[in-house]
Every structure is written in C-alpha cells, then in structure tokens.
Amino acid sequence: NIINDSFGGAEGKISFSFTSIHKWSSIDDAPSTLAFSYSSAIKNNVGLGLSILSEKVFIEQQTFAYVDFSYKLQMSESTLLYLGLKAGGNFYNADPNGLPSTSILPDPAKRQLSQFNPNIGIGGYLKSIWPDIEVIAASPKNHAVMIKSLDAGEIIKISPVPTISDGTAGGVED
Question: pTM to 2 decimals?
C-alpha cells in the first residue's frame, strides 16, 4: 500500500512490511531509505492501511506518511476490483548549513527549508485468477541458480561464472 492505496487489505489478512536500504555504505551521509507499511482486511469488504517512507539524500530529509482506505468489489467469480483513497503528506527538510564554505562571511543562500506538503490520492487494483495464463521466465545460462533451485526443490548455491547479464546473476536469498 506504499505505492497503491487500493492495495490495503487486498491480501485478505494482516500484512506488515519493513525495508531498510543504505546505499554506498562506505561513504558518510550516503543515501538511505526506510519504509514501513501495514494493511489489513477489516469487514464488509473494507481494507485499511498505513505507510511511512523516510528518505535521506545528502542535505535533504523527507518523510511520507499516509493512511489508506480500500473497498473491494466482486466483479465476477474470479475477478476483484479494489478502489482506494489515500491521505497524508510529505514532511520535507533541507539543511544546507553543513555544506562547506569558502568564505568567513555567512552565506545568505544557506537557509534551512522545512515544510509539510499535504497529499491525497485515489487508486485502483484489479485482481483476477486466470487459470489459462502461463508464466514464462528466463535466466542467464551461466548463472541459472533460480531454475536449478526450483528443479532441486530447495535453495542451492553455485559458483559464479562470468555473464553479460550481471543484473540477474547472483544467489537466491534464504
């Protein structure tokens, strides 16, 4: 429900998610992102959600906080339509005072900016079960750990081999 407000409660149960990303970990004040989301199906086709996303990049700090409401409509035996509303906002702060200066005089352009930006949104999510759909996937020939793990029925480890598809190379997380 961080991205789509209509997703709150779509899984039919209570759902928690927490993500922490720290980029360029060897560099001081490197970009970082923290995200938390909660959603739950209530009763009478209603779902509720809460999402908080905090990002720090250089001198900027942003925190997005939202409450989500969704309503489930049964379109057919195998198709559901979720409609959602989102309300909240963005707490924004930029503090250039930590930037290096070449002058002993204060820089009038280095002023801290802090503001709240309200935001509302709407969204939709169509969920359908199509038994005739076939999913086809591909993996690099030199590092097909996913397909080998699926064939073995368990996560396996294989030695890395050079591949031009380095974005898909790597192990499967436990």
Answer: 0.67
